[in-house]
Amino acid sequence: MSTEKNLNSFAALVDTIAKLRGPGGCPWDQKQTHLSLKPSLVEECYEVIEAVDQGDNQKLCEELGDLLMQIVLHAQLAGESGVFDIGDVLQGINTKLIRRHPHVFGEAKRKDAQEVAANWEVLKQEERKGASILSGLPKGMPALAYSQVIQHRVARVGFDWQEVAGIIDKLAEEVNELQQAPDHQARVQEFGDILFTLANIARREDVDLEEALRLANGRFYHRFRYLEEVCRRRALTINSLSFEELNTLWEEAKQEERT
């Protein structure tokens, strides 16, 4: 059982989760399954990301704890079923990290991060034993993030544009095809091609497109909240204003953001 003397240890968390799942534990924890915990796991990942975006170290510490709890809880469920336990999880990731870093734990020499990344892909290909380099990627990932990951993987084996200018030309081509799309289904396809090409440009420019869009969403959210607040202070009704009037307030919000 965890005590105040060892609450800063990983073993204490494992013991706490086991107690919550065990006889006399928490009814909510006892009824959870891998499937029922999926939404919580996704939510905790996004809360960690939000804490990073906000630069809030105290919140990041708390959210990492919540995420770690999810991991230990899944391991506890698996242990109860006799499939694997937290020790297997730790052994697996430690073994993988050591195997994929021969320049740290072995005799191999690597000059820089780019060479290390290239060797990492070679090692992963050996582990796949002939499987596709795109295998293992969860199809449930956000679509923009997934497109960047698969393009990053194929680029590691040389399937990539020589210059980013070529991808920008491709983007112009895709926009032109969208304009000429004859029906809705074709427009959906062309929009997908445009987004995929944008993801490729972002990858080449070392921009995480999912993060870039998330930050843009955040800016929009705060600017629109400012617009609403201005309307409230000035006794204006938003839906009675013209687009030009609203756009003027929007520019005011952007100026306020800069200052």
How would the blueprint of this fold be written?
Blueprint: H1 10-21, H2 27-30, H3 38-54, H4 57-80, H5 86-99, H6 102-105, H7 113-128, H8 143-156, H9 164-179, H10 184-204, H11 209-233, H12 243-258
Helix pairs in contact: 1-4, 3-4, 8-10, 9-10, 11-12
Commentary on this structure:
The longest helix is centred in the C-terminal third of the chain and has 25 residues, at 209-233. This protein has 3 domains: 10-97, MazG-like (Helix Hairpins, Orthogonal Bundle), CATH 1.10.287.1080; 132-207, Orthogonal Bundle (Helix Hairpins), CATH 1.10.287.1080; 211-258. The mean pLDDT is 88. The chain has 259 residues and is an all-alpha fold. The protein is built from 12 helices and no strands.
Instruction: Name the shape in a single word.
Output: extended
CATH topology term of the largest domain: Helix Hairpins
Number of helices: 12
Series of H and E elements: HHHHHHHHHHHH
* Extended strand count: 0
Rg over alpha carbons: 25 Å
Any idea what the CATH superfamily of the largest domain is called? MazG-like
Oligomer: single chain
In round numbers, the mean pLDDT is 88
Domain module count: 3
C-alpha end-to-end distance:
53 Å
Beta strand %: under 5%
Helix content: over 70%
How would you characterize the largest beta sheet? none
CATH architecture of the largest domain: Orthogonal Bundle
CATH class of the largest domain: Mainly Alpha
Low-confidence stretches at least 5 residues in length (pLDDT < 50)?
none
From the helix content, strand content and strand pairing, which structural class follows? mainly alpha
